[in-house]
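Annex B. Sample input.
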Amino acid sequence: MAVINMKIKKIGEIEEIWYQSSNIYYSKVDLGKKEIKKKTLVEGIQFDVPTVDVIIVFNRGAQYLYKGVEIHDYESFVGTLNREDKSSHGKSFNRHIKIYDYERLDDLDVTTLI
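Annex B, continued. Sample output.
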């Protein structure tokens, strides 16, 4: 299996990624707009977790805004899509991104994202 080809474009803190995946076409995140949320461990220890909003566009143009995605989940998701195991892309999306609140945005013609 070959590594998934990805095109990454960064302008300032905005990161755009185009994927050659069976279901995910594009993602966009503004890393400069991080927010901090408090997270509490079972032991009662609190710590700050940086979060971002992530736009995901699927191959057929469905577009979603995932809100408050923890940075480590976004980075794990992107890292998985750059691995050879294509079967894990959907699992990675479900594990790292789909767990967050989302809003369905207007569908896009993906050819306009080139």
